[in-house]
């Protein structure tokens, strides 16, 4: 059985990797994957504290975070597909030049 500290360390490592990925990468799909990794790190923290405290509040909150993350992924992918059709690139620097 892992202690609470172990779960929090793993969560912090996952969140740090996601943050570095968001700040360093230029590909929009990779940035979205890193944001999802950050959300999953927070979900792991909620689950760990929920188990440690013995209540179900953290697990319920994780359900809502996952629902919002799924909606964010769907909208983000739709925007990327629309942008790729116009520019034929999903580079983040190209997104800043959205003019009509």
Report on this model:
By secondary structure, the chain is an all-alpha fold. Helix content is 82%, strand content 0%. It has one domain (4-95): Helix Hairpins, CATH 1.10.287. The chain has helices at 4-24, 28-53, 57-87, 92-95.
Largest sheet: none
Count of discrete alpha- or pi-helical segments spanning 4 or more residues: 4
What are the low-pLDDT stretches, counting only 5+ consecutive residues below 50? Answer: none
**What order do the SSEs take from the amino end to the carboxyl end, as H and E?**
HHHH
Number of strands: 0
Distance between the termini: 57 Å
Shape: elongated
The level 1 CATH classification is: Mainly Alpha
The CATH architecture category equals Orthogonal Bundle
CATH topology group:
Helix Hairpins
What does the radius of gyration come to?
17 Å
Beta-strand residue percentage: under 5%
Question: Mean pLDDT score, rounded?
Answer: 87
Question: Into how many domains do the coordinates divide?
Answer: 1
Proportion in helices: over 70%
Class from helix and strand fractions: mainly alpha
């Amino acid at each position: 059985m892992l202690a609470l500290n172990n779960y929090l360390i793993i969560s912090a490592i996952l969140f740090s990797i996601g943050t570095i990925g968001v700040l360093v990468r230029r590909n929009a799909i990779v940035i979205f994957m890193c944001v999802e990794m950050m959300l999953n790190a927070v979900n792991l923290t909620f689950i760990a504290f929920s188990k440690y405290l013995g209540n179900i509040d953290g697990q319920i909150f994780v359900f809502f975070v996952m629902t919002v993350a799924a909606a964010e992924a769907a909208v983000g992918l739709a925007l990327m597909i629309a942008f790729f059709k116009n520019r034929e690139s999903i580079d983040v620097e190209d997104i800043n030049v959205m003019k009509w």
